Amino acid sequence: MSVPPQLLELKTIGDLRTRGYRSVSVKDELRRNLIDRLQSGDPVFPGILGFDDTVIPEIQNAILARHNLILLGLRGQAKSRIIRMLPSLLDEHIPMIMGTELNDDPFAPASRKGLQMVAEMGDDTPIEWLPRSRRFGEKLATPDTTIADLIGDIDPIKAATRKLTYADEEVIHFGIIPRTNRGIFAVNELPDLPPRIQVGLLNVMEEQDIQIRGFPVRIPLDLLLVFTANPEDYTNRGSIITPLKDRIDSQIITHYPRSIEIGSRITQAEAWYDRGGPVKVNIPHYFREIIEHIAVEARASEYVDQRSGVSVRLTRSAIEDLVSAAERRALINGETETTVRISDLQFVEPAITGKVELVYEGEQEGPQNVARLLIGRAVKAVFKKYFPEIEHRSTERSTFQPVIDWFSEGNGLDLSIQLPHAEFNARLQSVSGLSRLVPAKVLGISNPGEKAVAMEFVLEALHQHSLLGKDRLDAGVSYNDLMGSMLGNLDLED
User: Fold this and answer.
1) What CATH number is given to the structural domain containing 358?
2) Domain residues for 416?
3) pTM attached to this predicted model
4) Which pLDDT value is given to residue 424?
5) Half-sphere exposure of 297 (CA within 13 A, CB side)
């Protein structure tokens, strides 16, 4: 909620009292502003896709119930992004007693300094207006996090300089949680926080009773606490202690995109591929589906550790690498426009190998081979959506038999990754019957570049169905007759 400009001109507690200002707790403030947002139809979490019917309603329910909450899910499920959007539900400004460390409420000061100022000056106590940007605190939980970082500690230098005893509250140096008083505090990767540090959060969450080195300080903190965590069965570094888990009111489970369409929209929103450089790179729509299917295949693969998850960052990095491969080829060939190719998918491998954790069988296969397997499965899955079913030689003559026969006659096709469009197209056109297999209307083909890439798509799909052989060259690939390739390899070994 925005604050009227005339309110921002108020300078003292007396001014607030005269204008009838009333303070509310941060949870009531979030609840009120969420109600306004829902009634007006304005988006609460703009840009968050795929959670409209699952995660977002649960978060809204937790806020309406004034709950502390935890987002539990695998990596790359927008947990951190969501919690960083929660401050948008705070008021733009709220008043605080000027110069106080704990953002003291003018009508309910929490710190010793705030209490003293009100006691001495009363309604003349000066105030300042705290923006919402200063009401959000965040800490990435790490094993070296201390109670001093989160809650605070005694400052011996302050005690010596001001000649105070350790029993005086003035010697305390407050941590990030008290300094976020009247705001939202988030802990990312909560299980990584050592158990003894998690214990320090217990009283903060319910009793608001802070104890620092045996010195009890009763500070009524006003906070919304939000946590994120990976599932405990994956995070071997630690777990959430039971008493703390019990104090977290709502546990909300996040998830990966549940459809290719949603995943593609997320990737399109996140990836940097419209670069505005000297080269225009065209991306046929089915390539976006192939990229999304790579992630889908990885999340179901027997070679990938499913407990670790496969982040949506994989698809973002993959499509950026894909575009870069096409962009680089065009720059080398002096072209101003190009289309991504199936052969460019080999440059997606670095985006996969660094973002999937393999089980033992996957380690035996090797990260690069697993990446190639996932890409091949994705190509095969998307091909089925747009082309007739591929039949094997053992059945009656198939739609693709003329192309298979062309290769079985001893012909081969080398496709260098750096081929300019004219040469690339000419080589594909030389394959008998290949051009006729491309359904231009179904694929939405609008230029010769896309037609040539669709022809390459057919060859790769035939290879993935074990009907064509393919050899990887240093600078590209070579398609050939499957049986001839197998016999050639046997001869080589002999």
Assistant:
1) 1.10.8.80
2) 389-494
3) 0.86
4) 96
5) 21
